[in-house]
Structures are given as C-alpha cells and as structure tokens.
What we know:
Layout: H1 2-28, H2 39-61, H3 67-75, H4 84-105, H5 107-111, H6 117-122, H7 133-154, E1 162-163, E2 166-167, H8 175-189, H9 199-211, H10 222-246
Helix pairs in contact: 1-2, 1-4, 2-8, 3-4, 3-7, 3-10, 4-9, 7-8, 7-10, 9-10
Amino acid sequence: MLFQQCLFEFLGTMILVLMGDGVCAACTLNKSKAQGAGWVVITLAWGFAVMCGVLVAGPVSGAHLNPAVTFGLALAGLFPWCSVVPYIIAQMIGGFVGAVLVYAFYVDHFAATSDNPDGMLGCFCTMPAIDHKTVNFFSEFLATFVLVFLILAIGSKGNTPMAGDVPIGLGAVGAFPVTAVIMSLGMSLGATTGYAMNPARDTSPRLAHMVLPIRGKRDSGWSYGWIPAIAPLVGGAFAAAIFLLAF
Length: 247
C-alpha cells in the first residue's frame, strides 16, 4: 500500500514539474512559439499543472506532491509519520525526473538560448527578483504558510464535499480549489521569489539543472537554493500549528 502511494506521489509530482517547468520553458526559451507570453500565463499554467498532478495522485496517495504539505499534514495529525520520509523521497525523485523530461522536450530550444543562462535556470527553479535573503526567506515562508493552511482548511469538515456520509477527496472536485489557490498565490505572492513553496518543485529541478549537459548554462544558484528548500518546510509547520489552534 505504501509503495503504491509513493509511486503515485512520484507520478503526480513528475507531472506537476513537467507541466509547470514546461510553461516556464515555453515562455522563456528562444524560438518557442510561446516566448514572452508572460506572468499571467505562467501562473495560470502552474495552477493547472498542480491540478493535473492532483488528479493523477489524489485517489491513491492524497496528492501531497510537496514535502512541505506532507510535513504540515503530519504535524497536524492528519498523516502518519512513518510515511513522511518515503513520500518525500518519492516527491523529490518525481521533481527531478519531471525537470529532466522538460529538458528533453525543449532540448533544441535550450541550445538556442545559450545567450540567456539566467533564463535557462529559471526554467528549472526559482531565483529572487531582488537578492535580499531575509525577505526572500519570509516570502517563501509566508506563501507556503498560506498554501498549506488553505489545503488544511479545504479538507476541514465544513469545506469537504460529501456524497452521503463519504467525503469526496482531492482527486475529485477538491482539485479545483487547490488549483485556484496556486493561481492566486502566484499572482499575489509570487513575484518576489517565483513562489517555489515546494522543495520537490525547486531543489530537485535545480539538481537536474546542475547535472544536465546544458550548453551555456550558469551555476545552479545554490547560494540561494537553500531558501526554497527550507522556508517551505517552516511555513508548512507554522500552518499546521495555526490550523490545530483554529480548528
């Protein structure tokens, strides 16, 4: 059972990163038909990318797709601690594979964009608009706090759709509220750091950028990369604490 859940966490996270990083590549890389499409397209597509990952994994694993979500749910008493590490490993591997698939899909466009190493890095992971690490950490912390708190709230008794006495899970109608949350966060709180909110969406693709043979690439930004790895976990922990107090 746990193996199957982890398999679907892997698949869901892979789809999330494939489609999410895919839109970043589409809007950034030279000779792409979507080049320059802009922030609204990226935020909308990231929301739908999360929805697709949720629809894949939701019926089997609950579709955490994010170590910060898994950690927050465990702290809130809604997920067994014995499954936390296996889930996170599956998510991190899924994020890496998804990023590699983006590179394979857009390989010719990466080759045509060797004059823009920052843009190519942005197809994999986030970097701050202004490098101010204290504020950057707070941005990722707060955005993830809102994400995890709203996911917990969506799953609370008053917000969970029911079919008779049976709750309808995220794999059904609950996927759309999560999509709306991701879109809203991107539009309102995403412009400072790129709203990673998820180590599997940022750290794993950053590692893929580091190891892939991308011509003209820059360093992978590890001096900043610890922030989208750590701040989301802290934000998820605070969300769980506030949720327990409020609900």
